[in-house]
Write a structure and sequence with these properties.
binds pyridoxal-5'-phosphate, about 15% strand, TIM Barrel
Length: about 220
């Protein structure tokens, strides 16, 4: 599907859900995509991208940014604390703040470096053992802890279980965000971004629908 077609669908859904036009940002998830596909989307004028790994982003974005200095890159995947300093230098936002140890590390590094990307707290809405994230019941306390550390938390993020209706998870995430006065909602991927927009997503993370199937 073309970038234009996806943007149109987002705009239509915003309108039918009574949301402001442009309330949703489309993150083009370029992880594990060949450089020529990414270059093509940049050439079409798109500037907001998502990556899953520090290493991979460090390998490809410095070069793209020489040509497109206004390109923004968000980290969507898990962040190891030993890569946190590098992440601070690479990303405009991190969607995977998922544990107290990482919050403490980011707070310390933000002090040292004098800046911190926008942060989304990842919530494990499906309470899946294999998935990282803060449990719904612990979210209020974790938001408060992050605020006490002066971390720039702007919203919540979730990845619903593959075999469940995502709308239930999007609605739960929206409820948790509202209760904590957080404006940002990072939710929705290639298969369910329209449902996410209808339920208030401010950031949808769409990969394969834009770029095609990942090659590796
Ligand atoms: C890969 C990934 C996406 C994009 O997935 P698609 O199904 O290709 O749209 C979105 N969010 C996260 C966290 C991802 O890892």
């Amino acid at each position: 599907m073309s970038l234009t077609e996806i943007s149109d669908r987002i705009a239509k859904t915003e309108a039918s859900a009574g949301r402001a036009a442009g309330a949703t940002q489309l993150i083009a998830v370029s992880k594990r995509q060949p450089d020529d596909r990414v270059a093509d989307v940049l050439a079409q004028g798109h500037r907001l991208f998502g990556e899953n790994q520090v290493q991979e982003a460090a390998g490809k974005w410095p070069a793209f940014r020489e040509t497109y200095p206004d390109a923004k890159v968000h980290l969507l995947g898990p962040l190891q604390t030993n890569k946190a300093r590098q992440a601070l230098g690479l990303f405009d936002a991190i969607h995977s703040l998922d544990r107290p140890k990482l919050a403490n590390t980011l707070a310390r590094l933000a002090q040292e470096e004098g800046h911190c990307p926008d942060l989304f707290i990842q919530v494990n809405t499906g309470e899946e053992a294999q998935k990282s994230g803060i449990l719904p019941a612990d979210t209020d306390a974790f938001v408060a802890d992050c605020r006490a550390l002066d971390l720039p938390v702007v919203g919540l993020m979730c990845i619903p279980p593959v075999d469940e209706e995502p709308a239930l998870h999007f609605a739960l995430l929206a409820k948790l965000a509202k209760r904590n006065d957080l404006a940002g909602l990072s939710m929705g991927m290639s298969g369910d971004y329209e449902r996410a927009v209808a339920l208030g997503a401010t950031h949808v993370r769409v990969g394969s629908a834009i770029f095609g199937a990942r090659t590796t």
